[in-house]
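Re: [ENG-882] Designed sequences occasionally contain unexpected residues at chain ends

Forwarding the minimal case from QA. Structure tokens:
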């Protein structure tokens, strides 16, 4: 299943300014369905794009979600 990246706007406790923060990853077949899920469950999240890969800090490998979805 495709993973989607979300963001949220919140106050930075250090500066008092409103900033963008990384939200949850949402699993859904399309960006539109991911946003619909957010609207129904976590209305403060906005889907901003597809998660293509991750590079774990403790390991020497890349997790490529595009390759995983093709298997």
């Amino acid at each position: 299943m495709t993973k989607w990246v979300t963001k949220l706007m919140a106050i930075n406790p250090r500066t008092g300014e409103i900033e963008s923060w990384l939200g949850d990853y949402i699993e859904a077949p399309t960006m539109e369905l991911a946003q619909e899920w957010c609207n129904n469950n976590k209305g403060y999240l906005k889907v901003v794009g597809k998660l293509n890969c991750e590079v774990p800090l403790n390991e020497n490998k890349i997790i490529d979600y595009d390759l995983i979805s093709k298997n």
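QA comment: On inspection the terminal residues look reasonable. The chain has two helices and five strands. Proposing we downgrade this to a documentation issue.
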